Amino acid sequence: MNDTFRDEFHAEIPPVPTGVERPLWSVLIPTYNCVIFLKEALQSVIDQDPGREKMEIIVVDDCSSKDDPEQVVHDLGKNRVQFVRQKTNVGKVRNYETGLNMSRGFLIHQLHGDDKVRMGFYEKMEKLFEDYPRAGAAFCRSIYIDENAKWLKITGIEQYEDGIIPDFAERIAIAQRVQTPAMVVKREVYETLGGFDRRLNCMEDWEMWIRIANKFPVIFANELLAEYRTHNRNATYETLMNGSAITTHRLLLEIVDSYLDQDMLRRIKSQRNFEQAKLFLMFAQSMKHHRRSSALRMTLKALSLSLNPKIVYRALKSLCVGERR
What we know:
Layout: E1 25-31, H1 35-46, E2 55-61, H2 69-77, E3 82-85, H3 92-102, E4 107-110, E5 116-117, H4 121-131, E6 137-145, E7 151-154, E8 163-164, H5 168-174, E9 183-186, H6 187-193, H7 204-213, E10 218-229, H8 235-242, H9 244-257, H10 262-287, H11 292-305, H12 309-324
Parallel strand pairs: 1-2, 1-4, 2-3, 6-10
Antiparallel strand pairs: 4-9, 5-10, 6-7, 6-9, 8-10
Helix pairs in contact: 1-2, 5-7, 10-11, 10-12, 11-12
């Protein structure tokens, strides 16, 4: 792993010093004002804890202003879980960097404080890396849940058999297919590629998965072992409501287009625009009953990406329904 992709926008993740004892796993749990869900997230890890020799668990709080995650960590994790609080709010990407730099494990699992993993997650992922040692990352299918942990939908099947996805770089460049709680990355991959992109206030995970798949094989497990929570208090929802997601989306595409293979990019560009337009129409649909202005921004963004007849029809239908209301 000699290729590097570092600049001022990507934190360097130095290797763990020689001689330091290393567990197999580093489970990093970044938090910010989400203590209402943190207990579930932390419990889902502790229930699968293989012991200190094999796993470290670190909660990194971005100076929460509305709750006290340290108390949850103390009550639930006791002396098993490390807790670190930023002195000031540094933003989620730099909060991630703190966890990555603290980590000593060979495998990194970043579990946001409002998400969960299901029983068998760590055992399954460990086996995948044993079976496919040249892979840089592995992921499973996810369940979308709401604030009350009710199932909303599930992610698709990339392939029916577990193993490396042959064309994953192309698939992930077209559309986001992996929610963060489902993904495990070798630490040496972060050491090679650097941290999450500091320019992105959302979708930073999608850019990272594209960057990884552009350089390393990625494994897929056809099992539902992670739960991704959607609610109106998470950071992504805020960027959709205030419109910054549109600017960030444009920037993200500029970033990945700068390093993707140009022949591949030409092949996928039309499909990518179509898939991204569908995504923004989905956002618009979810917001139109309580934030019309945000829904309109999302609809116009969709039309700017694709004028495919299916997109135009859905956009006009959405606008007309909204107008009748």
